[in-house]
Amino acid sequence: MNDASRYEVAVALPVRGTFTYSGPPSAPCAPEIGMRVVVPFGRRPATGYILGPATDTREDILPIQAVVDTTPIFPPSLVPFFRWLSVYYLYPIGEVIQAGLPGCIDAGIAWYYHITEAGLQALAEGGLKENHRTALQALASGKTERSKRTAGMKGRAGSKGVSAAVLNGLIRKGYALREYRLEKDRVRHLTETVVRLSSDHAPGTDGASSPELHKIMETVARYGEMPLRMLKKEAAGATPARIRKLVDQRWLELDKRIVYRDPFGEMIDPEPLPNLTEEQRIATRMLSAAIGNGYEGFLLNGVTGSGKTEVYLHACRMAVAKNMDVLVLVPEIALISQIERAFRARFGNRIAVIHSGLSEGKRFDEWHRILHKEVHIVIGTRSAIFAPLERIGLIIVDEEHDTSFKQESGLRYHARDMAMVRAKLCNAVVLLGSATPSIQSFYNLSIGKLRQIRMQNRVEDRPLPAIEVVDLSVRRDTRGTERFITPELHQAMVETLDRGEQVLLFLNRRGFAALPVCAHCGLVLRCRNCDISLTYHQQEDTYRCHYCGYAIDGSSPCPACGSPKIKRLGIGTEKVEATVKGLFPAARLARMDRDAIRGKHTLLNLLKDLRNRKIDILIGTQMVTKGHDFPYITLVGILLADQSLHFPDFRAAERTFQIISQVAGRAGRGEQPGRVIVQTYTPRHFSVVSAIAGDYEGFYWKEISYRKRLSYPPFSSMAQMLVHSKDPRRAKDHAEALGQILHHNRTSAEMRQILVMGPIQAFVAKLINQHRWQLLLKSKNRRALHDFLERTMFENPGMFHPKQIGVAIDIDPVFMM
C-alpha cells in the first residue's frame, strides 16, 4: 500500500459503520491492518483502527493525519471476529476493538486545556461561578494544562471534580483554550542492555591488554550474550569504563532487548504424564481426529473428579504438535492459578495468561508475547477471547456453564458463545467442558451443533459422594445455631474432624448479616446509592453495599429514628465462621470469599494450606465451586441449598441445580469417600431432587419442557434494554418514550414475531446512583429481532445516545436484575 491507497478505518467512537481515509501525507511507514491511526472526524481528530483497504472511490476522501504504531497491535485474523461481534451485539465496531484490546494499550488523541489571559483576568476580578472558578484555579496552579483522552480512551484525567462540560463552557467564554495532541501508550516495553562479542571479533583473539579486560572478554565468550547487569556481577573489575573501552575498540557490542515482566511468580516443576482412564483415552482420540480438520464443536460432559483437565492437557499437546495455537478460557481469576499450574507443569513457559488480576505492565507484555508468536497456549478469563492468536486450532472453555463468562457492561458479550464463533471463523475445534452443562449447550448437543464426550466415572474409580437431605422447612421455628448448623450436620462435622479429614461449608452469601433492621422503628439500613440493603461485616465492623462499595460504621444509629439498636438478621459466611469457631474452638478455619481472598497470592496460599492439611474447616461462597480440587475434603455441608431458587429469573432452577451439583462434587476427590449434607427448605423441588440424585438428564428434560411451554431460550431469542440516569424522572420518561417507539415501530409481521415487554422498573431500581428501567424483547426468530432492533436504532439515533441518560442493549441477557 502507498500513500495514495485508501483504508477502511473503524473509529473508536459510538458511531455506526466504518469510514474511508486516504494514506497519510507523510509517515515513517504505511498503515497496515491492525495499526492505530489518527483521523479527522467532524470537528476533532479521533483514534481509528485500520481494517484493510477500502473500495470507496469518491474524490473528497480526507487523509489519515498520523500513524500511531510502527507494527500492528492485532492480527488481520481478528478483523472478521470484530465485525461479527459488532453486527451481533449491535455495538460500534471501533468500540468493539477498543473493548477487545488491553486497557494499557491506549495510545490516542488527548486534548489539553490552557488558561488564557482573559481567564487569568476573570479569575483575578472574581464574580465567577464556583465551578468555573475551581476549574480556572486548577489550570492556573503551577500545572498549566490538564488533559483528557477522547474516544473513550483511558488516560490522564482532567482536574479532580472538573467536568469536560465545565471546561468547554470556559472555552466558549474565551477563558481557556484547547489543543489536541497524540499521546503514546501509558505502558511500554521494559528493555535492558545486553553485551555480546563483536561480529568483528576473531576466534583466539580478545584484544585484552590487562587481566581485567581479559576476564570480561572471557566471561562474555562463555555466555555468548548476557545482560550488562549480569556481566558486572560475574566478572570482577567489569567497570563501565573498561566495558566502554572494549566497545570502542569493537571487541564487544552493546544492544537493547525487550524484557518481559514475569506474570507467574513461582517456578513449577515438570510433572510426569499420568496414565489415562479408558474414558479419557476415548475423549483424546475423538479430539485428536478432529483437531486440524476444520471446525467442530464438542461438549465434554464429565462428572466432578473425572479428569477433564487431563483431557484438556492432552488435547493441547496434540494441537501444539500440529503447530497450532490453543486458547483456554476459565470463568474466574480464582480458577486461573490451578489450571495455570497444571499447564505450566506440562508446557513450561510456553503459555501466556490474560486476566484483570495482572498489572498493566504484565498484561501489556503478555499481549505482545502472543502477538509476536512467542507462545502457543493462552489461558485467561473471558477477555482472553480477544487474544491475538493467528493459528488457533483448539479453543477450550472450562466450566462452560458459569455465568462469569458473560460481560455485564460495555460490550455485553458471552465468552462461551463467542468461543464457538471464533472457532468457526478459524476452522478450529471448540471444546466446552462441564459437569453440569448449561441448558443452552445441552440443547445444542440435542440438535447436532455439538458432539458429546461423556465421562461418567471419577479417576481411579473413586465413588461419587453419598448425599443426604435435611429438610429445613420442619425447623422454621428453630432459633440459634441450629438454624444453619443442624444437629445432623454438626454430628457429621464432629466425626469427620475426629478422623483428621477436612470439612467444606458452603453458603452463597458473604458478610456477617445480610439484613440490618432497626429494632425500634423497623427501618432496613439501605445503601444511599443503590436500592439494596447493606450487609454487616463483623471483621471490619462496617455495613457495606456489595454493589457500589458504600460503607458506614458498624456503630451507626438508625438514620430515621436515631436508635442505636440495630438487629443484624440473616446469615453470611462471616457469621458461619464465628459460629463454627464457637462450636469447634480447636479447629483451624479459613474463609474463601471475595472479602477474604484479596489477590492471587492469598488464594494460592489458601490452596497450599488446604493441600498441606493446615486447614480443618473451609467456609466459602460460590468461589469454591469453580473446579478446585480439594483431595482431603470428605464432608461438604450446603447450608441453604435453595437460596438461588428465589430470584425472579427463568434460569433460577438451572443455577440451583448447578450450584448443588458443583459444591457436592468437591467431596471425596481423594482416597477417602465423600459425604454431602444438603440443607434446604424445598427438598421436593425438581432441581434439588435431580442434583441430589446426580441426574442431569432428568433435570434437563423437565427444565427444557418448561422453557418450551413459556417460549424462553433456547426456544426464543431475547434482548434487554436498560435505561438509567441519575435523575429518576428522566430515566422513567426516556424508558416510556423508548417503549412507545419499540411498540409502534413494528411492522404487522414483526408484531406477530416480536414481543415487547415493559418498560418496568428494574428489580434493583437504583444502582450506584443510577435509577434503572428496563424493556425486554423476545422472539422465536433471531434474525427478525436483530433486524428490528437495527432498524429502530438507525431511525432513532437520538433515543439510543441521549445526553445524561444511558441506554444499554444486551443481546442474550443472562442477568435481568
CATH class of the largest domain: Alpha Beta
Strand order of the largest sheet: 14-15-13-16-17-12-18
Shape: globular
Structural class: alpha/beta
Distance between the termini: 50 Å
Mean pLDDT, to the nearest integer, reads 86
Radius of gyration: 30 Å
**What share of the residues does DSSP label as strand, in percent?**
15-25%
Count of distinct strands: 33
Q: Which fold name fills CATH's third level, the topology of the largest domain?
A: Rossmann fold
Q: Provide a count of the helices.
A: 24
Q: Helical residue percent?
A: 25-40%
- The CATH superfamily of the largest domain is P-loop containing nucleotide triphosphate hydrolases
Number of domains: 7
Largest sheet: 7 strands, parallel
- Poorly predicted tracts of residues: 142-160
What is the CATH architecture term of the largest domain? 3-Layer(aba) Sandwich
Name some characteristics of this structure.
7 domains, six-stranded parallel beta sheet, GIY-YIG endonuclease, 817 residues, alpha/beta, seven-stranded parallel beta sheet, 24 helices
